[in-house]
Amino acid sequence: MFPRIQRSFTKLKQRTLEQAEQLAAERERWIDRNSFYYEEDWNYMRFLVPEGKRVLDLGCGTGRLLEALRPDSGVGVDFSPAMIDRARAARPGMTFVCGDVENLEDLPELQSTFDVIVMSDTIGSLDDCTETFRSLHRYCGPDTRIIVSYHSRMWEPLIALHARLTTRQPALPRNLLSSQDIANLLHLADFDVIKREWRLLCPFRLLGLGRLINRFVATLPLIRKLCIRNFVVARPQPRERLSDPTTTVVVPARNERGNIEALVRRMPAFCSKLEIVFVEGWSQDGTWEEIERVMAAYPAVDIKAFKQTGKGKGDAVRMGFAQAAGDVLMILDADLTMPPEDLPKFYEALISGKGEFINGSRLVYPMEKQAMRFLNLLANYVFALLFTYLLNQRHTDTLCGTKALSRNSYQEISRNRAYFGDFDPFGDFDLIFGASKLNLKTAEVPIRYAAREYGETQISRFQHGWLLLRMVVFAFMKLKAL
């Protein structure tokens, strides 16, 4: 048994502890009686936290949420000895520590870093939120995610009334924090906020209607701000640059013979070891033969080439990434509408920590005449708005083909690909959705979009427009209507 807490608390915190001690014996039954509410809340938590992670739950109570997240190793901390005793008895496969989350340095049991640190409602009873967040850095690696969930301020009176009627305990004062307030506190504590989300509009089952409301109504624009639960996801602000990582630029190429040599010739040497991987896809204009000629003509350039066995750009990208040797993975379309000279900007954004998933944006700078037809441009603006809402991160151009991410991030996306399945013929959304699911920080690099000098676009406005509409529905079902 770990020792009981000896540290003195403020009067309010002492009252909170006393109430937790009194309610500990009923905590499991309380959750069971309100099982719909908790399952809806934890369902989104499970979406944010992939299975098999090292999870630290601060303010864990009896450990039900920690158990629901299915961690590889789970550690829970709570200042109520009675809660911790019940957590240990019910969940012997996890570690539960009796301690104050505002004084974690007093807990010798916490010696490692975690993949995810969860605070569910705990922020409401903290004396100093900023200092508590700041103390978490010692338990964070570069890829750790902090997930804070709390109820909306507008629901506070009803939540207090419900607790009073059902537990016969007085409602104690709680910190009144919006998701923007929580994001600001994390920022003050040197965390980088990735996304905010609002969930759970109906806390009751209502013969099945509650689930439908929470899936299809609660997540809609404007309406979602009325939800009970707020979620904020953050990461530690990067403190060190990556040290000259090697890079692979994957170039899907179909009927691009006239662009191959120009691409190699214009490729800047922005890192000490750079390789170019061409994936040629069923061309009819001699693109493969041109790639072979260019490889022989530029022996000093590290070029690899593969013939695509499947179809579509997405398949070509996955094939190229599977063959890549670089620590950083990039995509560059062979049509050269995105200048290769801009690739160092993507590299710099990634290795400096500005983002973990770097996406190009063609819709900032003026375009060359004929670079993009009006209907394509209009569609890009519309889809940018839709996907900004769906992904909870700003995206001004989801269809720009140029992207950059680390090999480790891509491998994590690949390991979790089963959630979305093989759905994307473009290749863009496989990465964008995967990055969103893993809570990777997105950063956009504006580029100057140029007109083609050789060949014809592979995009069919109406056929691919229909596919994009289907992609919006798919994203809504997978990212919102959970």
Label this structure with key terms:
482 residues, Rossmann fold, 2 domains, elongated, disordered N terminus
CATH fold node name of the largest domain: Spore Coat Polysaccharide Biosynthesis Protein SpsA, Chain A
Our Rg estimate from Cα atoms comes to 25 Å
How would you sum up the global shape?
Answer: elongated
The CATH architecture assignment of the largest domain turns out to be: Alpha-Beta Complex
Low-confidence stretches: 1-6
Record the strand order, biggest sheet.
Answer: 3-2-1-4-5-7-6
CATH level 1 name of the largest domain: Alpha Beta
The N- to C-terminal Cα distance equals: 40 Å
Structure, described:
This protein is α/β, with parallel strands linked by helices and 482 residues long. It has two domains: 11-236, 3-Layer(aba) Sandwich (Rossmann fold), CATH 3.40.50.150; 247-480, Spore Coat Polysaccharide Biosynthesis Protein SpsA, Chain A, CATH 3.90.550. It has 17 helices and 14 strands. The protein has helices at 11-23, 27-33, 35-48, 64-68, 81-90, 129-135, 156-167, 179-188, 209-217, 260-266, 287-297, 313-323, 343-351, 374-391, 407-415, 428-437, 461-480, and strands spanning 54-58, 73-78, 95-98, 114-120, 140-151, 191-199, 229-236, 247-253, 274-280, 302-307, 328-331, 357-361, 403-406, 442-446. Strands 3-2-1-4-5-7-6 form a seven-stranded mixed β-sheet, sandwiched between helices. A seven-stranded mixed β-sheet has the order 10-9-8-11-13-12-14, with helices on both faces. Helix 6 (129-135) links the parallel strand 4 and strand 5 (140-151). Helix 14 packs parallel to helix 17 and helix 15 (407-415) crosses helix 16 (428-437).
